[in-house]
Amino acid sequence: RVRTISDLKGKTVAVPQLNSPQHTFIASIVTQIGLDPNRDITWLLHPPAEGKRLLAEGKIDGFLGFPPDPQELRARKIGRVLVNSAIDRPWSQYFCCLVSANREFVRRHPVATKRALRAILKGDQLCAVEPGRGARAFADQGFKGSPEYARQAMTEIPFGRWRAYNPEETVRFYALRLREAGMVKSSPQKLIADGTDWRFLNELKKELKG
């Protein structure tokens, strides 16, 4: 039976596709505890809905769910949580998500880029202080699942931490894990130097009220 991350050695894990967010996140997690995601895990490619069904039927051993999938699985008493990146260290000490943009678009349209980032950060703050309103907005955007699962997800996701977390440290942490897994070739220093731009975030930290 799978009770810890190390128990995934030799087991099957469902992801939508290789190099998907789910695949890279799980690869980072297993690499952290010494497993080789390329040799120690059998990856099966299934959409998230199919992955949940296979887990419920006991036909796969692992599944990484993004909210509100974990809330649904918990309510249905399916599986057990091995890692909760919102509360389990070291994962909880880093951003789970970062905003990316086309380099040329950012160069040509810095004002629009900053406005978009401002809207994202203001939405994050709204979800932190009014999770119910965030869940309703989620539903208004076409979410067809349970409103209760959406509400639980909005309550449990660690919104509002973008002032405290260090995005550069997040890139460094995951780059090291993925390099160990053979999924990226560049060093963390090169990725940070060539692929990040914190100027808009730093400006908005000063401009947006806490």
Key attributes of the depicted protein:
6% strand; 3-stranded parallel β-sheet; D-Maltodextrin-Binding Protein, domain 2; mainly alpha; 210 residues
Biggest sheet layout: 3 strands, parallel
Structural class based on helices, strands and sheet pairing: mainly alpha
Record field, number of beta strands: 3
Strands of the largest sheet, in order across it?
Answer: 2-1-3
Taken together, the total number of domains comes to 2
> Percentage of helical residues?
40-55%
- What is the H/E order? EHEHEHHHHHHHH
What gap, in angstroms, lies between the N and C termini? 46 Å
- The best one-word shape is globular
Total helical elements: 10
Amount of beta strand: 5-15%
**Low-confidence segments:** none
Spatial extent as radius of gyration? 18 Å
Mean pLDDT: 90
What does this structure look like?
Strands 2-1-3 form a three-stranded parallel beta sheet, with helices on one face. It is built from ten helices and three strands; from the N terminus they run βαβαβαααααααα. Helix 3 crosses helix 7, helix 6 (131-140) crosses helix 7 (147-156) and helix 8 crosses helix 9 (188-195). The protein is mainly alpha-helical and 210 residues long. It is globular. Helix 1 links the parallel strand 1 and strand 2. The protein has helices spanning 21-32, 48-56, 69-75, 103-108, 110-129, 131-140, 147-156, 167-180, 188-195, 199-207; strands at 11-15, 41-45, 62-63. It folds into two domains: 5-83, D-Maltodextrin-Binding Protein, domain 2 (3-Layer(aba) Sandwich), CATH 3.40.190; 103-207, no CATH class.
